[in-house]
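Subject: mismatched residue count in predicted assembly?

I count 122 residues in my input, but I want to confirm that the predicted structure covers every chain. Input:
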Amino acid sequence: MTRRDFIKSLATGAVAFFAGLYAFGCGKKETPKEEKAAEPEMTDEQKREYVFANCICGKCPSWVECGEKGGFCLVGKSTCIKEKKGCICPDCPVTAKMGLKYGYYCTEGDAKSLMEAEAKAG
Ligand code: SF4
Ligand code: SF4
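Triage response: the counts match. Full output below for your records.
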């Protein structure tokens, strides 16, 4: 077998190999799986439970211990936190889960009010 014949046979073999793969479906584009069913909307009570169960306000430098439960993004301003010493709301799972975009709810008010105020301001 000449060098040329050898290269030709290699090329033919490669074509046959990839044609075989395609026949077995390996070369086919994967058909998209069924759309993941949207998560059912949480009830207000479930949201409340989720917020209090996941709130990390207690670890925040602005936190003042006075018997509050946190969850200021939902319940609004704290009665005892008055000084802004940093806010860790962006690291809270509630921020991602609820699609929140603010912080300092303890001094600024709940997320819904902040959103409404922003919408009004244009
Ligand atoms: S986003 Fe902030 S206020 Fe709301 S639950 Fe998380 S840490 Fe607490
Ligand atoms: S709302 Fe933000 S600033 Fe206020 S206590 Fe919670 S994490 Fe800290």
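Residues 57, 60, 62-63, 72, 81, 87-89, 103-106 surround iron/sulfur cluster (ligand 2) (CB under 6 Å). Marking this ticket as 'not a bug'.
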